[in-house]
Amino acid sequence: MKSNSLKNHVDRLSAGYLIIGKWHKHRYTIVRKLGSGATGTVYLAEDGLSQLVAIKVALDNMAITSEVNVLKHLSKVEGKILGPELIDVDDLVTSDGNIPFYVMEYLKGTSIIDYVNGKGAEWLGLFAVQLLGDLENLHREGWVFGDLKPDNLLIVGSPKRIRWIDVGGTTLLGRSIKEFTEFFDRGYWNLGSRKAEPSYDLFAVAMIMINCEYPERFEKRAGNLEDLFQKKIMESQRLQPFCSILMKAIRGNYTRAGEMKSELIQLLGDSPKGKKKSSVVKQTNKSRKVKKRSQKKPSFLIEFFLILSLLILCYILYLFGQMM
Ligand SMILES: Nc1ncnc2c1ncn2[C@@H]1O[C@H](COP(=O)(O)OP(=O)(O)OP(=O)(O)O)[C@@H](O)[C@H]1O
């Protein structure tokens, strides 16, 4: 009975509800629910300075402690922002008992699938490079992200940057993956084990790129699954340029995120100081030009698109510069 009403507290904190932490006495006013997951519920709230924060409330003390430990660990990685910043950890006192919660940076952003929708292959490549850079740092710290999927990623800020949320699946290297989602899990596709190693996350990166092109996802079926992926990749104009890299990640041929990242950067043709025009960009431009020629559009439109492509290319170069 008591645990039912505690559960109601966790799930149903309404707008305006004031949380005063038992230990630190910080005050947070609930704005709205952001969503619920396997371990708890996340709320958007305002802190005492009217700054927006995200608060995760959960009945499972162990789950909260484990996520807090991961966030604390990630915040110690010097010069790198991995995961949302941890702001506070406390208990919410109710008449039915205490409920643990933690407060983190609120990441306001767009889902990667929505963000890249209708954009060129270079955007997909750029976010994959950013994500691989973060994974490289995470793996170096001895962790594997585990439950890597678009729901746990957001595109935030300006310049645009991929950020991850929900570190609940983060697992120590060598252990068994704690949490996974079938489509992004190589074990589900019989293409590897659920041992926490970098190649587990790299498989998921490839699947995230594929998911951006196939938002409805697709089912496992009898037969050679590598052939299924190859076919799906080759049927998509946006994924085609990445085919050999994606297949290497799917087959588990990369042992480090850095290897996959360098090959992507090379493919995009733009090393940090690179001047060469990206083959992906070239390919995108070429197909745009062919289309335009065949449609015999007025020349000012062609100029407009060329200038636009050039601006996008410069922006991407700038973003690479920011990452280094
Ligand atoms: N720091 C944050 N900033 C903004 N939104 C967040 C933040 N953390 C979580 N969210 C959002 O809150 C919702 C719930 O997140 P949570 O991590 O609890 O569960 P989940 O990812 O849906 O599920 P599961 O934990 O089962 O994978 C998600 O929609 C997520 O996008």
TrEMBL record:
<dbReference type="InterPro" id="IPR011009">
    <property type="entry name" value="Kinase-like_dom_sf"/>
</dbReference>
<keyword id="KW-1133">Transmembrane helix</keyword>
<protein>
    <submittedName>
        <fullName>Serine/threonine protein kinase</fullName>
    </submittedName>
</protein>
<dbReference type="InterPro" id="IPR017441">
    <property type="entry name" value="Protein_kinase_ATP_BS"/>
</dbReference>
<keyword id="KW-0418">Kinase</keyword>
<dbReference type="InterPro" id="IPR045269">
    <property type="entry name" value="Atg1-like"/>
</dbReference>
<keyword id="KW-0812">Transmembrane</keyword>
<feature type="domain" description="Protein kinase">
    <location>
        <begin position="28"/>
        <end position="324"/>
    </location>
</feature>
<keyword id="KW-0723">Serine/threonine-protein kinase</keyword>
<keyword id="KW-0472">Membrane</keyword>
<dbReference type="GO" id="GO:0005524">
    <property type="term" value="F:ATP binding"/>
</dbReference>
<dbReference type="Pfam" id="PF00069">
    <property type="entry name" value="Pkinase"/>
</dbReference>
<keyword id="KW-0808">Transferase</keyword>
<feature type="binding site">
    <location>
        <position position="56"/>
    </location>
    <ligand>
        <name>ATP</name>
    </ligand>
</feature>
<feature type="transmembrane region" description="Helical">
    <location>
        <begin position="300"/>
        <end position="321"/>
    </location>
</feature>
<dbReference type="GO" id="GO:0004674">
    <property type="term" value="F:protein serine/threonine kinase activity"/>
</dbReference>
<keyword id="KW-0067">ATP-binding</keyword>
<dbReference type="InterPro" id="IPR000719">
    <property type="entry name" value="Prot_kinase_dom"/>
</dbReference>
<dbReference type="GO" id="GO:0005737">
    <property type="term" value="C:cytoplasm"/>
</dbReference>
<keyword id="KW-0547">Nucleotide-binding</keyword>
